[in-house]
Design a protein that fits this description.
42% of the residues lie in helices and 36% in strands. The chain is of the alpha+beta class and 172 residues long.
C-alpha cells in the first residue's frame, strides 16, 4: 500500500511540477523559474540543447532520404505521425502509411534541399519551417524543379524527438 502511495505521489508531482520544474531538478541550486525565464542562462542553454536535438533528427531525415531508406524515414515519426500534402488531398498516418509514401516518392525524387526559415522549441514540442527544393526524375514535374514550404512539428517521446507531423506545401 505504501509503495502504491509513493508511486502515485511521484506521478502526481511530475504532472503538477511540469517539464520546466523537473528539468530544473537536474540543475541543483536552480529553481523552475530559471527555466521559465526565457532569457536566463539556464533556459537559453536548455533551449539550445533541444534545438540541437531537433536539428539532429532533420539531419538523419535528410540522410535517410538521400539513401532512399523509407524504413528509416518512417521510424523518425511518432506512432501517431502524419504527412500531409494539401495540394494532393493526401494524408499518410502511422509508420506503415508513411513508409509506403516514402517508398513511392523516393525513387522519383532523389535529392531534396532545405533552408531553415524558423525553428522553435518549448518543453516537449517543437516546430521547424523550411523552404524545400527537389528535382523529380520521374512522373509529374520530371526534369523540372519542385519547391515549397515544409512545416514539421516534433514531439519529445521519452528522451527522443519524433516527427509528429509534416506538411508539404507545394508552390511549384
Amino acid at each position: 500500500m505504501r509503495s502504491a502511495a509513493v508511486i502515485c505521489g511521484v506521478v502526481l508531482s511530475s504532472i503538477m511540477l511540469g517539464p520546466a520544474a523537473l528539468t530544473a531538478q537536474q540543475y541543483p541550486g536552480r529553481s523552475a523559474r530559471d527555466l521559465r525565464d526565457r532569457n536566463s542562462r539556464l533556459a537559453v542553454e536548455y533551449r539550445q540543447g533541444l534545438l540541437a536535438d531537433v536539428s539532429r533528427v532533420m539531419v538523419t531525415w535528410r540522410d535517410a532520404w538521400e539513401a532512399d531508406d523509407a524504413s528509416s524515414l518512417a521510424r523518425l515519426y511518432s506512432d501517431k505521425g502524419v504527412i500531409i500534402r494539401p495540394i494532393h488531398g493526401a494524408a499518410y498516418r502511422g509508420h506503415g502509411e508513411i513508409e509506403g509514401f516514402f517508398t513511392e516518392v523516393l525513387p522519383t525524387v532523389r535529392a531534396i534541399s532545405t533552408d531553415v526559415l524558423d525553428l522553435d522549441v518549448a518543453d516537449r514540442m517543437a516546430y521547424l519551417v523550411t523552404k524545400y527544393t527537389s528535382s523529380p526524375s520521374q512522373g509529374i514535374g520530371a526534369g523540372g524543379t519542385m519547391h515549397g514550404t515544409l512545416v514539421s512539428v516534433f514531439q519529445l517521446e521519452g528522451r527522443n524527438w519524433r516527427i509528429r507531423s509534416q506538411t508539404f506545401l507545394d508552390e511549384s
